[in-house]
Structure to design on (224 residues):
Protein backbone atom coordinates (compact mmCIF):
# COMPACT_ATOMS: atom_id res chain seq x y z
CA UNK A 1 0.00 0.00 0.00
CA UNK A 2 1.21 3.51 -0.76
CA UNK A 3 0.29 4.82 2.66
CA UNK A 4 -1.49 8.08 3.31
CA UNK A 5 -0.89 10.52 0.46
CA UNK A 6 -0.92 14.27 0.96
CA UNK A 7 -0.58 17.07 -1.54
CA UNK A 8 1.01 19.44 -1.96
CA UNK A 9 4.07 18.70 0.20
CA UNK A 10 4.91 22.38 0.42
CA UNK A 11 2.69 25.41 -0.07
CA UNK A 12 3.70 29.06 0.08
CA UNK A 13 0.94 31.60 -0.22
CA UNK A 14 0.19 35.21 0.58
CA UNK A 15 -2.04 36.31 3.38
CA UNK A 16 -5.67 36.44 2.32
CA UNK A 17 -5.39 33.70 -0.28
CA UNK A 18 -7.37 30.47 -0.17
CA UNK A 19 -5.39 27.32 0.57
CA UNK A 20 -6.58 23.77 -0.07
CA UNK A 21 -4.75 20.77 1.33
CA UNK A 22 -5.54 17.29 0.04
CA UNK A 23 -5.41 13.82 1.50
CA UNK A 24 -5.92 10.30 0.22
CA UNK A 25 -6.25 7.82 3.09
CA UNK A 26 -5.16 4.21 3.05
CA UNK A 27 -7.73 2.09 1.25
CA UNK A 28 -10.12 0.40 3.66
CA UNK A 29 -9.52 2.82 6.51
CA UNK A 30 -12.77 4.20 7.89
CA UNK A 31 -11.28 7.00 9.98
CA UNK A 32 -9.53 10.11 8.71
CA UNK A 33 -7.86 12.76 10.85
CA UNK A 34 -6.44 16.22 10.19
CA UNK A 35 -3.72 17.55 12.51
CA UNK A 36 -1.68 20.73 12.70
CA UNK A 37 1.86 20.80 14.10
CA UNK A 38 3.69 23.94 15.22
CA UNK A 39 6.63 24.54 17.50
CA UNK A 40 4.50 26.59 19.87
CA UNK A 41 1.42 24.39 20.13
CA UNK A 42 2.75 20.95 19.24
CA UNK A 43 0.42 18.50 17.50
CA UNK A 44 -3.25 19.44 17.54
CA UNK A 45 -6.17 17.40 16.26
CA UNK A 46 -8.35 19.62 14.09
CA UNK A 47 -11.11 17.26 12.96
CA UNK A 48 -11.76 13.61 12.33
CA UNK A 49 -14.18 11.70 10.12
CA UNK A 50 -15.70 8.25 10.37
CA UNK A 51 -17.17 6.79 7.18
CA UNK A 52 -16.91 10.23 5.55
CA UNK A 53 -18.93 11.92 8.31
CA UNK A 54 -17.30 14.58 10.53
CA UNK A 55 -17.40 13.30 14.10
CA UNK A 56 -15.48 15.89 16.10
CA UNK A 57 -14.47 19.28 14.73
CA UNK A 58 -13.90 20.94 18.09
CA UNK A 59 -10.24 21.44 17.23
CA UNK A 60 -10.90 23.54 14.14
CA UNK A 61 -9.49 26.96 15.09
CA UNK A 62 -12.09 29.20 13.53
CA UNK A 63 -14.55 29.61 10.70
CA UNK A 64 -11.75 30.21 8.24
CA UNK A 65 -11.02 26.49 8.40
CA UNK A 66 -13.25 23.88 6.78
CA UNK A 67 -12.81 20.21 6.00
CA UNK A 68 -14.70 17.88 3.72
CA UNK A 69 -14.66 14.22 2.86
CA UNK A 70 -16.79 13.71 -0.25
CA UNK A 71 -15.88 10.03 -0.52
CA UNK A 72 -13.88 7.33 1.23
CA UNK A 73 -10.71 8.05 -0.72
CA UNK A 74 -10.40 11.81 -0.56
CA UNK A 75 -10.49 14.67 1.93
CA UNK A 76 -9.67 18.36 1.82
CA UNK A 77 -8.78 20.95 4.43
CA UNK A 78 -9.42 24.49 3.27
CA UNK A 79 -8.30 27.77 4.82
CA UNK A 80 -9.98 30.90 3.54
CA UNK A 81 -8.66 33.53 3.98
CA UNK A 82 -5.22 32.36 5.12
CA UNK A 83 -3.21 34.27 7.74
CA UNK A 84 0.50 34.11 8.70
CA UNK A 85 -0.40 32.39 11.99
CA UNK A 86 -1.76 29.45 9.97
CA UNK A 87 1.81 28.58 8.97
CA UNK A 88 2.41 25.02 10.18
CA UNK A 89 2.77 21.45 9.04
CA UNK A 90 -0.61 19.87 8.42
CA UNK A 91 -0.86 16.11 8.73
CA UNK A 92 -3.54 13.77 7.55
CA UNK A 93 -3.84 10.36 9.18
CA UNK A 94 -6.12 7.40 8.61
CA UNK A 95 -6.98 4.28 10.54
CA UNK A 96 -9.06 1.13 10.42
CA UNK A 97 -9.77 1.28 14.14
CA UNK A 98 -10.31 4.61 15.93
CA UNK A 99 -6.90 4.49 17.50
CA UNK A 100 -4.03 3.07 15.41
CA UNK A 101 -3.41 5.97 13.11
CA UNK A 102 -1.12 6.04 10.10
CA UNK A 103 0.18 9.47 9.24
CA UNK A 104 0.92 11.01 5.88
CA UNK A 105 4.15 12.92 5.21
CA UNK A 106 2.51 16.28 5.89
CA UNK A 107 2.05 19.55 4.02
CA UNK A 108 4.28 22.41 5.10
CA UNK A 109 2.27 25.61 4.76
CA UNK A 110 3.88 29.02 4.81
CA UNK A 111 1.66 32.09 4.71
CA UNK A 112 3.54 35.34 4.10
CA UNK B 1 -8.49 19.35 31.26
CA UNK B 2 -6.58 16.55 29.60
CA UNK B 3 -2.85 16.99 29.32
CA UNK B 4 0.07 14.81 28.27
CA UNK B 5 3.55 15.86 29.35
CA UNK B 6 6.99 14.74 28.27
CA UNK B 7 10.49 15.97 28.84
CA UNK B 8 11.82 17.81 25.81
CA UNK B 9 15.23 16.26 25.32
CA UNK B 10 17.13 13.04 25.97
CA UNK B 11 20.67 12.21 24.98
CA UNK B 12 22.16 8.69 25.18
CA UNK B 13 25.21 6.87 23.87
CA UNK B 14 24.87 4.28 21.13
CA UNK B 15 24.33 0.83 22.60
CA UNK B 16 22.84 2.14 25.85
CA UNK B 17 19.17 1.91 26.76
CA UNK B 18 16.92 4.94 26.37
CA UNK B 19 13.93 5.58 28.60
CA UNK B 20 11.41 8.18 27.49
CA UNK B 21 8.79 9.17 30.02
CA UNK B 22 5.26 10.52 29.73
CA UNK B 23 2.58 11.52 32.20
CA UNK B 24 -1.08 11.93 31.43
CA UNK B 25 -4.05 13.22 33.37
CA UNK B 26 -7.16 11.48 32.07
CA UNK B 27 -7.78 8.27 33.99
CA UNK B 28 -10.34 7.16 31.41
CA UNK B 29 -7.66 6.66 28.77
CA UNK B 30 -8.36 3.57 26.74
CA UNK B 31 -5.18 3.33 24.68
CA UNK B 32 -1.75 4.86 25.08
CA UNK B 33 0.56 5.13 22.10
CA UNK B 34 4.14 5.87 21.19
CA UNK B 35 4.94 7.48 17.86
CA UNK B 36 8.28 8.31 16.27
CA UNK B 37 8.83 11.33 14.02
CA UNK B 38 11.96 11.67 11.92
CA UNK B 39 12.89 15.02 10.36
CA UNK B 40 10.54 16.07 7.57
CA UNK B 41 8.30 13.07 8.01
CA UNK B 42 4.97 12.21 9.54
CA UNK B 43 4.49 10.30 12.76
CA UNK B 44 5.16 6.59 12.67
CA UNK B 45 3.24 4.35 15.05
CA UNK B 46 5.75 2.40 17.13
CA UNK B 47 3.70 0.56 19.70
CA UNK B 48 0.71 0.91 21.96
CA UNK B 49 -0.67 -0.46 25.19
CA UNK B 50 -4.20 -0.93 26.40
CA UNK B 51 -5.02 0.76 29.68
CA UNK B 52 -5.67 -2.60 31.36
CA UNK B 53 -2.10 -3.75 30.72
CA UNK B 54 1.05 -3.04 32.75
CA UNK B 55 3.72 -3.91 30.23
CA UNK B 56 4.21 -4.68 26.60
CA UNK B 57 7.40 -5.79 24.87
CA UNK B 58 8.01 -5.60 21.15
CA UNK B 59 11.57 -6.48 20.07
CA UNK B 60 13.79 -3.64 21.37
CA UNK B 61 10.83 -1.67 22.70
CA UNK B 62 9.32 -2.08 26.16
CA UNK B 63 6.31 -0.05 27.28
CA UNK B 64 5.54 0.25 30.97
CA UNK B 65 2.26 1.66 32.28
CA UNK B 66 1.69 2.77 35.86
CA UNK B 67 -1.99 3.58 36.01
CA UNK B 68 -1.88 4.72 39.63
CA UNK B 69 0.66 7.43 38.83
CA UNK B 70 -0.62 7.95 35.26
CA UNK B 71 2.90 7.36 34.01
CA UNK B 72 3.93 5.75 30.74
CA UNK B 73 7.45 4.96 29.62
CA UNK B 74 9.13 3.70 26.49
CA UNK B 75 12.42 1.85 26.83
CA UNK B 76 14.56 1.34 23.75
CA UNK B 77 17.20 -1.33 24.26
CA UNK B 78 20.56 -1.13 22.45
CA UNK B 79 19.82 2.35 21.12
CA UNK B 80 21.15 3.00 17.62
CA UNK B 81 21.86 6.26 15.77
CA UNK B 82 18.82 5.50 13.61
CA UNK B 83 16.68 5.86 16.71
CA UNK B 84 17.43 9.58 16.83
CA UNK B 85 14.05 11.25 16.36
CA UNK B 86 11.21 12.90 18.26
CA UNK B 87 9.05 10.49 20.24
CA UNK B 88 5.44 11.34 21.00
CA UNK B 89 3.27 9.84 23.66
CA UNK B 90 -0.48 9.96 22.96
CA UNK B 91 -3.59 9.02 24.84
CA UNK B 92 -6.94 8.11 23.39
CA UNK B 93 -10.02 8.39 25.55
CA UNK B 94 -13.52 7.28 24.72
CA UNK B 95 -16.41 9.16 26.24
CA UNK B 96 -18.95 9.55 23.50
CA UNK B 97 -16.50 10.53 20.82
CA UNK B 98 -12.83 9.64 20.75
CA UNK B 99 -10.40 12.23 22.11
CA UNK B 100 -6.80 12.20 21.00
CA UNK B 101 -4.19 14.06 23.04
CA UNK B 102 -0.53 14.09 22.01
CA UNK B 103 2.39 15.02 24.21
CA UNK B 104 4.90 17.70 23.33
CA UNK B 105 7.41 15.14 22.10
CA UNK B 106 10.85 14.13 23.39
CA UNK B 107 13.81 14.69 21.09
CA UNK B 108 16.15 11.72 21.42
CA UNK B 109 19.74 12.22 20.34
CA UNK B 110 21.94 9.16 20.08
CA UNK B 111 25.66 9.83 20.32
CA UNK B 112 28.02 7.55 18.44
Amino acid sequence: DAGVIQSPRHEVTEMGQEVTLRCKPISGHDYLFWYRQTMMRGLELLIYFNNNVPIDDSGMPEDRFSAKMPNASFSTLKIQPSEPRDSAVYFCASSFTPSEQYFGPGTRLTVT
Amino acid sequence: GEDVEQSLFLSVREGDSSVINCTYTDSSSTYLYWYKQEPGAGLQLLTYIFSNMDMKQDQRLTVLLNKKDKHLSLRIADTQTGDSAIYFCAEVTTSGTYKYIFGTGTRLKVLA
